[in-house]
Task: inverse folding
């Protein structure tokens, strides 16, 4: 029996039995250190002889560039934006992730359908509908949710690159200024993520700790997952 | 977010469906002129025309980088943009919206490409249900005969060449469009499409369309500006 399955109807023309690799997802809000940990995991896995592919949002060959441009214009409706992201996601799933899984790679995904669903729901899109859309997606082997509370998140963003239009949900007119809007938007997103922990089986990782501690934690979990599912290739 | 069949707008939405060569666009443009001549405010929206999305679609097609799934999703994105910007606002304002191809085109084409039909219906659940959906029924042979008379080479995706049905474009087109007709025929009942016999004369088809449309127009807003009268009164320097 195939080790992988789709959330629902899935993609036409894909033989799940051919997929051999591992699909590992890092989820979490902007500023929790996802990209740092993806990079660390990649280096560590490669050092241990695993072939790794990283896939990130809005980086599809098909729609990535145009999607990033369209966001500049601020004219996307919420349903259109959700579907544009779904196109980008499907292109990466079919042309990056699935071929890599066939070749036995460990695929590290920087934000999967969960971020896309959370953002859509916060923008007023029907939650059942957006879940239906992503019935096309593969179920990952592991979903690691890097979590920090809202106060910590604000501090990090202030220390980092400052408030960004979309990350502050400015299109939603939630507050008087960027700060109010950011807090409100990110709180809503956080609530959506927290809601998904149980229904989608997220492994919650406390990301308020030092990078070393978080990475140690992640490494241990990833190792356990790789061993458990593929004892013959213990790293 | 309102779903199919649940929108309540004062405007009217008429759409045309059918395979290439069925004459649906001709009929829709005749309807357009007539509705305007009757004083209605009319908007037109065409499949695959969102300024935001169509460059992606065009490039994806040109470079043959679309799979059945991304082909489906990019068209859904295009349709969503037009729904949010070109279809819903005029309907809210009480205008008449005409659409050349609608969600049924996606249902027919994408299912012919192997995409799951139930999933597609969920994907397009945000679409506004048309006041009347016209389906121009024509046999494949007749459609091909008409296309041959007017046209250049068959396009890659239009002929379903991405599916590897046949190396011969003509043959592939035949198989693929045949599957599409099969899907349309199934949808006539499922969605209550109004069938128009596309082999009738242009005038007869148009007369039938106008009849169906008229039945639904009670209470629809007309424009206040009656152009000739206004021009005449301006000439007399009357007060606004």
Result:
């Amino acid at each position: 029996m195939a080790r992988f399955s789709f959330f629902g109807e899935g993609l036409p023309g894909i033989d799940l039995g051919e997929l051999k690799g591992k699909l590992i997802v890092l989820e979490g809000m902007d500023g929790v250190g996802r990209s740092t940990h993806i990079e660390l995991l990649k280096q560590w896995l490669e050092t241990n002889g695993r072939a790794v592919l990283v896939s990130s949002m809005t980086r599809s060959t098909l729609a990535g560039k145009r999607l990033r441009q369209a966001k500049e214009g601020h004219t996307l409706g919420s349903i259109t934006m959700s579907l544009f992201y779904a196109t980008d996601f499907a292109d990466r799933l079919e042309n990056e992730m699935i071929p890599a899984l066939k070749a036995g790679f460990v695929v590290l995904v920087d934000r999967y359908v969960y971020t896309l669903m959370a953002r859509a729901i916060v923008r007023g899109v029907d939650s059942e509908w957006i879940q239906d859309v992503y019935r096309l997606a593969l179920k990952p082997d592991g979903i690691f949710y890097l979590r920090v509370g809202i106060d910590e998140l604000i501090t990090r963003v202030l220390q980092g690159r400052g408030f960004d239009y979309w990350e502050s949900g400015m299109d939603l007119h939630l507050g008087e200024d960027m700060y109010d809007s950011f807090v409100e938007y990110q709180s809503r997103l956080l609530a959506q993520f927290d809601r998904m922990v149980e229904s989608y089986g997220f492994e919650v990782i406390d990301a308020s700790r030092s990078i070393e501690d978080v990475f140690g934690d992640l490494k241990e979990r990833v190792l356990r997952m790789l061993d458990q599912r593929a004892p013959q290739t213990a790293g | 977010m309102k779903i199919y069949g649940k929108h309540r707008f004062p405007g009217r939405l008429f759409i045309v469906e059918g395979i290439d060569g069925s004459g649906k666009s001709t009929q829709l443009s005749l309807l357009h002129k007539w509705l305007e001549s009757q004083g209605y405010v009319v908007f037109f929206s065409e499949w695959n025309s969102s300024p935001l999305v169509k460059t992606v679609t065009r490039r994806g097609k040109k470079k043959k980088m679309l799979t059945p799934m991304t082909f489906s999703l990019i068209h859904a994105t295009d349709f969503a943009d037009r729904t949010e910007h070109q279809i819903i606002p005029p309907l809210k304002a009480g205008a008449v919206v005409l659409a050349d191809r609608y969600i049924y085109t996606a249902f027919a084409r994408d299912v012919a490409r192997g995409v799951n039909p139930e999933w597609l219906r969920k994907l397009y659940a945000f679409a506004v249900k048309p006041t009347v959906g016209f389906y121009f029924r024509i046999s494949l042979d007749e459609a091909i005969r008409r296309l041959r008379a007017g046209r250049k080479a068959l396009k890659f995706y239009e002929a379903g060449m991405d599916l590897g049905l046949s190396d011969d474009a003509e043959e592939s087109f035949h198989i693929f469009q045949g599957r599409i007709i099969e899907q349309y025929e199934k949808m006539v009942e499922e969605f209550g499409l109004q069938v128009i016999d596309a082999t009738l004369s242009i005038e007869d088809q148009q007369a039938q369309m106008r009849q169906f449309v008229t039945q639904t127009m009670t209470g629809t807003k007309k424009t206040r500006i009656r152009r000739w009268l206004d021009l005449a009164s301006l000439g007399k320097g009357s007060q606004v």
User: Anything to note?
Assistant: The longest helix of chain B spans residues 68-92.
